[in-house]
Amino acid sequence: MKAYDIYTKELIDEKASLLFKEERSLKRLDGWFLAREIVCDAQKYLTGLSREIRAAHELKNIIMNIPLSISEHNVFAGTQRDSFARSYALINPSFEVETFSGYCDPTAIYDDIEPNAEFTTERIAKVKDFTKNTEFVRKLTKVYDEYEQYTKEVIFFIEQVTGHVIPDFRPALKYGIKGIIEKTEESIRLEINEEKRNNLIAMKLTLECVILLANRYADIAKSQADSASEERKKQLELLESTLRKVPYLPSENLFEAIQAFLLLWQVMCLEQAPNPFAFSVGNADRIFEPYRKNLSREEAASLFKHFLVFYNVGDRSWAISQNVLLGGKSNDGEDLTNLCTYAFLDAYYAMNFPQPILSVKLHKNSPSKLYEELGRFFFTPGCLTPSLFNDESVFEVLTKAGIEKSDLEDYSVAGCQEPLIMGKDNGNTTNSWLNLGKIFEMTINNGHSLISDELLGRTRTASNNEILKNIKEYFYEDAKYYIGHMADAANKASIALSELPVPFLSSFMGGLETGYDMRDIKNQGTRYNASGCLIHGLSVVTDSIMAIEEYLKAYPNNPDRLIDAIKDNFIHDPDIRAFLKKAPKYGNNIPSPDLLAQEISIKISDYIKSMKNYLGNRFRADWSTPSTHLLYGYWVGATPDGRASREMLGYGIDPLYGEATMGLGFRILSCMNLPFKEMNGGYASHFGIDPKYFTADSYEKKGLQFKERIISPLFFNDMNEALCPYYLYVNVTTADTLKKVLADPKKYAPNGVYIMRIHGTFVNFLDLSPAIQNDIITRLDPNSTSI
Amino acid sequence: MLVNIFQKGFNFSQDGPGNRLVYHLQGCNMHCPWCSNPEGINEKGSIMVTNGIIDDICPRGAIVSGSLDSIICKGCPKICIQAPHTGIQLSYSTYETDDIVEEAFRSRSMFFSNGGVTFTGGEPTLNMPVLTELLKKLKQKDINTAIETNGSHPDLASIINYVDYLIIDFKHYDDEKHRKTVGISNTIIKRNLNKISFLTKIIIRIPLIKGFNAEEENALGFVKALSDCNKQNLSIELLRFHEYGKSKWTQCGMEYKMNGNEYISKDTLEMFTRIFKGNGFNMIST
Asked: Is B11 within 8 Å of A787 when comparing Cβ atoms?
């Protein structure tokens, strides 16, 4: 029995819409709490077990006991609803830049639960206390305490990295879990190292969990079929028979492959509840194309609509930053788009969901058809838009970073824009966060905060005159100093996290080959391993150094005026601010600031990459600022570029808003000077583009214009002697349009959904907190983006 | 040589083919009341005010409640812009011509789709030696060049060898109306159009302003005025009235005299197109 023997395409489409509607009506997400409660209650049976085996049994207990259901609108079984909390800050209406302090306390999430008759205060407190006393939380708390001096006003920040990788489920679809388990059993028999053997046993136990889950769903389907209408009965029978087969056995068609994939995903997320953020599906079109067989593009698209619904959790699609990749090229340079690429695009466009994120990989020979089909995304107001990756450059960046050639085509993107190899790369991408703006403040104000006046950093014996004259060298010295501390702190956070092994995920990250958990801190469980550092403040530091140079030319004997002005936030000296604002700024195709930005990004990238993580692997330099340019800017006082205290920093590698006044062409030219080859952890860049610059009369033709006017010059510019940029996201709209949407959402977004990109992810603009809405509007600065 | 530029940046295909780096040169010998770049009219530059301006900056009281009255600025040495102040600036910056050429060369990777450099204004021919030097040096570097001019320079033909794409604005065929509205005679413009049309290709841009030049009789008048030109080398582009520059008149402390009734209808545009085409002219739209 096959899906289209039972369903019409129209019925599948209708069910997808109804299922999404049903999901968005959920105002509570308690599943993650139940999962943690199950783990808490199971402890009495798990004493004496090794960490890895205990983790496997904890997962098994969750899978056995978590309440499951199948909606009348479900075509596939499965949900990731029980793995996420309603906590992600940026889509939380109560989020405020002023009070956000990062996710330091892993037990704070329990305070977000609204107690009721079922989830009483006592019940919540019990699980919270259990969590508080785990070794993981104890160790992590100690790290945060130790480095509070540096983190409280965000000289740097660190976190333990959950989620943020790309599992490779392709073998599970191809061989079935049965095949993988049999191979694992053989490995266990042959393994003489006890630790590895133990780990493999744990992995095998968790692999069995997905079979358990499939059978639990199959039982529900069978039970529901008994009392269902004739039509629904057939649907449930198909579901049951599919679940009895996959993912245990190999998938043989698209329906089975999607079903298998969703259950694997569900177990993976439950293993990390409540923090499985930013897992990536990987190169989705390539994963599913072998199973499409004789299904048409339209038929495949309908099934993919249900696939996409799965990634939307609760009333605000809380499972944020889960990335689906399409397109790209092979290791030999062949285009890898296929019919599933276009079927996915159709499903995305038709549904226009806030999640999962869509990213499209482009290369020099990407077909025109792909650009034509992308046109509708960019030019339909309120429609989601994909992030764009340049395979030509990404391949070179990854090669330099040590990725083997045979793995290049399997790069995908976890989280916002961090390129990682599917199933082989644990990049710990968001392990550390560096605030160059605050470091610059430490340098110019001799270790004292301009916000609180507190002594936070190191001091040096130097006059204001000496500081200004040597600002660049002192800044580099300080950056090196804080980066060292940051790496120490980040590694300690990773060590704390190793208390929570993930045998199921490790099975799809190379653990079955290495015999080690991917979070192991002594033995490398994945082929590639690193720790990430997200670097903030490139434009502010560049522009500040340029402005100081100009200042010293004009006022060589009056260093105190500048220092006093930034201490005073320019309140009593607006003229000096006007002077500083006129200094040459990065982003306008002016050689001096552009070359300085290049120098700073090379130096800081080098410092970061010289740091070693807990396994002795290098940190990766990631110049992206996923809305943290707002949060970190809030902790940076006035800067010599004329930026006022607590204003945002520049986004990613972009010029500071309002400072690139010469339009998009000059911005692109400035951007081309940056050393993308050194940005091996990723970077972020955003163009706000006025749709009026694209004059063609159809979406398809506009898509081609987009290629000609934006993508080709930026990504595939033969005249650019350096490595071309490799990442971009755009919002093709204007600030005025967004203001209108906010003022009258019923008129401009009648269904309550108006999708915009905020950084690596897109979200429903109307779900965002006001601070983030305002950030998007501000960065659509027309002077910096006119074509 | 020095050149005063009040605006620069890229524009796609509207000021010549492909993606172009467009330089707006300060100063114009016309004063079209619909001008979208009024800050570029005064050859000596315009003082512009924006948010945050403090009234006290001008001791002569030219700024009241954040608004500028440029009439009071006449004859003033403009000390207000000698040092930077928030919310006030001179419209242009001064560059060495070699720096402009170097900047253009540095930007050539953005000249896609057969793009290049366009000089416009203000009126770029107002400082002919500077413009000539710029064009010559760009051509030496094999950069595609375009100018957009009002066609009023008597020696315009002398630079056409260095211009790949020549755009000439033609506001009105009637000399009296031309003189009355934009401030100068159109005699030289008509002479230039005629002469140059036999030497090279020209794109003639006609801004259609209701109440000034947008009636059917005007269409016929334009056709008649251009009838002696070499039509083989002419392309006509009709530009619809717009008010994109309206706010800049206020910023410059200058009176904006359009009242918003000057927009033309689609029918008018079609009528003009039909008449031009019917008389053998090639019409384009960029």
From this structure: yes
**How far apart (Å, rounded) are the C-alpha atoms in residues A235 and A223?**
13
Contact A118, A92 (CB under 8 A): no
Beta bridge partners of A360: A326, A388
ipTM (interface predicted TM)? 0.86
User: Contact at 8 Å (CB) between A266 and A319?
Assistant: no
User: What is the tens place of the pLDDT at every residue in A507-559?
Assistant: 999 999 999 999 999 999 999 999 999 999 999 999 999 999 999 999 999 99
Structure tokens at A625: 């600022």
- pLDDT tens digits, residue range B62-84? 888 888 898 888 888 888 888 78
Which distant-in-sequence residues (6+ apart) come within 8 Å of B98 by Cβ? B137
Least CB-CB distance to A577: which of B10, B86, B103? B86
Q: Do A787 and B108 lie within an 8 Å CB cutoff?
A: no
Give the tens place of pLDDT for each residue, A671-703: 999 999 999 999 999 888 888 889 899 999 999
Looking at residue A785, its pLDDT comes to: 62
E strand or H helix at A258: helix A254-271
What is the residue type of A404? E
Comparing C-alpha atoms, which of A81, A366, A350 is closest to residue A358?
A350
Give B107's contacts in chain A (Cβ within 8 Å): 589, 665-666, 669
How far B107 CA lies from chain A's nearest CA (Å)? 7
> Do the Cβ atoms of A709 and B12 come within 8 Å?
yes
pTM: 0.93
Residues of B in contact with A708 (CB under 8 A): 112-113
Best to test chain A binding among B109, B143, B244, B285 (most A CBs inside 10 Å): B109
Q: How far apart are CA A568 and CA A440, in angstroms?
A: 17
CB pairs under 8 A between A and B: 62
Nearest residue, CB atoms, A665 vs list B19, B54, B84: B19
Name the residue type at position B266: K
Cα radius of gyration (chain B): 20
User: Would the pLDDT of A90 be above 80?
Assistant: no
